[in-house]
């Protein structure tokens, strides 16, 4: 630690050590002032140097750990977000999230019986299922009103949670059918440059009218 043969601490090595551990100039001066020519003062200075060095080593050690913790936070933030698990099958409009719905629903079939369009039926798992095939859902809300357990709840904006996907067998690119575009009640469907229908998912409410009106089986509905 820079001790001379005469037992006196030299200033330059002391300052180098303190620079390495991060001490400021005032602290260096205070330490050096304690280093007088007597043996007891030298021992005091050595003791002070030892404590000061340990202190700054501990401080830097904690800072190092903190940086590691910060690095772990960045790594965690960069991990891909887990995609939510979709329901096993489509549920009636206004349904709670799948897991919660299965707790609340008593499989009473009241919503199924209340649907005037006949597009709700009992799935093989016992829970109601929305099946749009020959009729679309107009969002009448009778299924929600019939639910006594609040597994189905009123929506601020009607949405079945389904969106149309247009298959490759769509004839519009060669015949200019445009049935899905012309009959969409929300005008959420349009034709792109290649002649294929595309859907504006933000406008679409998943009513299924495009599927019902398509005579070429070129539309399917998928859960979102």
TrEMBL record:
It comes from the Bacteria. Keywords: 4Fe-4S, Electron transport, Iron, Iron-sulfur, Metal-binding, Transport. PANTHER family: DIMETHYLSULFOXIDE REDUCTASE CHAIN B, OXIDOREDUCTASE. Signal peptide: none annotated. This is Ferredoxin. GO terms for molecular function: 4 iron, 4 sulfur cluster binding; metal ion binding. It comes from Escherichia fergusonii (strain ATCC 35469 / DSM 13698 / CCUG 18766 / IAM 14443 / JCM 21226 / LMG 7866 / NBRC 102419 / NCTC 12128 / CDC 0568-73). Pfam families: Fer4_4, Fer4_7. InterPro entries: 4Fe4S_Fe-S-bd, 4Fe4S_Fe_S_CS, RnfB_subfamily. Residues 93-125, 128-157, 195-224 form the 4Fe-4S ferredoxin-type domain.
């Amino acid at each position: 630690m820079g001790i001379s043969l005469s037992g006196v601490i030299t200033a330059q090595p002391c300052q180098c050590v303190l620079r390495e551990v991060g001490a400021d100039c005032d602290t260096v001066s205070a330490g050096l002032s304690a280093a007088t020519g007597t043996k007891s003062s030298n021992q005091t200075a050595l003791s002070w140097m030892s404590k000061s060095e340990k202190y700054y080593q501990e401080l830097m050690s904690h800072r190092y750990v903190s940086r590691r913790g910060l690095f772990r936070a960045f790594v965690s933030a960069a991990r891909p977000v887990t995609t939510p698990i979709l329901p096993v099958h489509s549920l009636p409009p206004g349904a709670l999230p799948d897991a919660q719905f299965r707790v609340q629903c008593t499989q009473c079939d009241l919503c199924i019986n209340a649907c005037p369009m006949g597009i709700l039926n009992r799935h093989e798992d016992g829970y109601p299922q929305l099946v749009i095939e020959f009729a679309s859902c107009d969002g009448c809300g009778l299924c929600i009103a019939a639910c006594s357990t609040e597994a189905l709840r009123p929506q601020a904006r009607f949405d079945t949670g389904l969106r149309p996907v247009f298959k490759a067998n769509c004839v519009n690119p060669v015949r200019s059918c445009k049935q899905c575009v012309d009959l969409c009640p929300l005008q959420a469907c349009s034709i792109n440059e290649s002649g294929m229908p595309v859907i504006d998912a933000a406008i679409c409410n998943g009513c299924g009218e495009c599927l019902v009106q398509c005579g070429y089986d070129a539309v399917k509905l998928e859960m979102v």
